[in-house]
Amino acid sequence: MSFQTGLSGLSAASQNLDVIGNNIANANTVGMKSSRGEFADLVASAIGAGGTSNTAGIGTALSTISQNFSQGNVSITGNSMDVAINGGGFYQLTKTDGTTAYSRAGQFKLDKDGNIINNSGSFVMGYPTDITGARTSQTTQKLSIPTGAPIAAQVSKLITAELNLDARAVPYDSVTPNVARTTYGTSITTYDTQGNPKPVSLYFQRIATVVTATSPTIDPNAVATATPTDQWAVYTDPLPANQATPVGVLCFDKNGALSSTNGVPDSTFPPVGPPSGLAVTPTDPVIPTYYVDVNVSKVTQYGVDFAVSNLTQDGYTSGAFTGLSIDNKGVITTRYSNGQTLKSGGMIALADFRNVQGLSPVGGGEFLESYKSGTAVMGQPTVGSFGELRSGAVEESNVDLTAELVNMMTAQRNYQANAQTIKTQDQIMSTLVNLR
Fold first, then answer.
1. Among 142, 265, 354, 415, whose CB has the most other CB atoms within 10 angstroms?
2. 199: closest CA among 156, 165, 241, 234?
3. Ranges of each domain in the chain
4. Coil vs helix vs strand at 345
5. Which residues, at least 6 apart from 307, have a Cβ–Cβ distance to it below 8 Å?
6. Distance (Å, rounded) from C-alpha 135 to C-alpha 128?
């Protein structure tokens, strides 16, 4: 019996060395979770012992190899396709054979079709999102980025102007020679339906200061007040004749704030009459005229020089894919050569399990769901028990190399000690055989 006991000890020590060696070999493997061999003693059953047997044990056997799913260090790589999970959760993957796997390794790539994959070729799963980054479905799907065809152009519909009109400017036609309309002007490039650029110029011309008398209506003893309102006419290209109708009239109160546009309390102005917006005629006669509203809510009239602080519009030409970024919530933002960024690339999904120790490792840093692990619970990063994502970083192996080297020396001593029990038993047997 002692031979078998020693042999089981040798086997246990050898298996323990295998586990330790695997940990050491994967000390630099991204997303690696260290393992530990857990052993149990063996006892021969004693029939009729009634539970009071003093039978000696007959050795040991491997009970299980458990894994330590503690957080590994987050290491910065600078690669936007590297994503580390800081906290709970696993990436959900669809393997090439259609099976679902889970992993903590976040070294992702783009394949030729724009699918996000890992180094094993498994597809990374996530949720579809709208342009604001909000998910639009509860069902996960393969994350795919349109890297082939460029995004379509968007026609300009709104110009937003932030500028100051000089309150010291004299009204038009009040001096000789007249103040040129181009004195207070600016220009911005807009885009037609095919993404062709077309500049639009805006010219501001002070026309009058109107004083409105307000009579008392509630208190008959109150004194009537007068409210001055400064007005500026707005023109656009082609620059009209001196007496032409402006496309808009801006009115400012005594504090220099915009009080009304075209006589109504509105912050955007169209030309007089329908259709709404400034009419812009494309250079190509085949392309129809498009109309652009102008938001002037942040236009002021202060006693300083005319200055444009910001002038933007919402159109753009077509653009090719240039890269992507992933935020801490897993939302993928794609970047294009026309300067546009879109959050409609999807959101990386995370999975969790009631018993992570029940997951079955299959290599490549991937695990399969099992009966012991329970069903995967899906969610999005930073919500509930799920951790946040860190783009441009990876989660390092959680193997403690120093501890593993010490464990290896201990396993080696155990192996030697078990070998010694076999050697001693052999000597005893030899003594018995040599008896005369």
1. 415
2. 156
3. 2-70+397-433, 75-127+135-147+348-395, 158-313
4. coil
5. 163, 164
6. 6
Please report, for residues 110, 162, 327, 334, 349, the alpha-carbon distance to residue 320 in angstroms, rounded to integers and kept in the order given. Answer: 16, 30, 22, 10, 26
Q: Is 85 exposed, middle or buried (0-12, 13-18, 19+ CB in 10 A)?
A: buried
Yes or no: domain 158-313 corresponds to CATH 3.40.50.10170: no
Q: CA-to-CA distance for 213 and 189, rounded, in angstroms?
A: 42
In whole angstroms, what is the distance from residue 296 CA to residue 161 CA? 5
Contact predicate 347/126, CB 8 Å = yes
Strands 158-166 and 300-302: parallel
Residue with tokens 């970024």: 325
Helix and strand totals (H; E) in the chain: 2, 31
The answer to whether 183 touches 218, Cβ cutoff 8 Å, is no
- Tell me: the pLDDT tens digits for 373-390? 999 999 999 999 999 999
Residue with the larger pLDDT of the pair 301 and 273: 301
| C-alpha closest to that of 122 among 149, 167, 166, 90 | 90
And the tokens for 45? 């059953």
For residue 196, give the 3-state DSSP assignment. coil
Residue 205: both structure tokens together: 């011309």
CA-angle at 86, arms to 85 and 90, nearest 5°: 35
220 or 133: which leads in pLDDT: 133
Cα atoms in the 13 Å half-sphere on the side-chain side of 182: 6
Burial of 316 (0-12, 13-18, 19+ CB in 10 A): buried
CB atoms within 10 A of CB 202: 23
Nearest to 119 by CA among 354, 338, 364: 364
Residue with tokens 């030309």: 271
pLDDT tens for 342-365 read 888 899 999 999 999 999 999 889
Q: Report the greatest alpha carbon distance in the chain.
A: 142
What would the pLDDT profile of 139-192 be if each residue is shown by its tens digit? 999 999 988 878 899 999 999 999 999 999 998 888 888 888 889 999 999 999
> Look-up: residue for tokens 């630099």?
28
Length of the chain: 436
CA distance 84 to 30: 9
Beta-bridge mates of residue 123: 94, 117
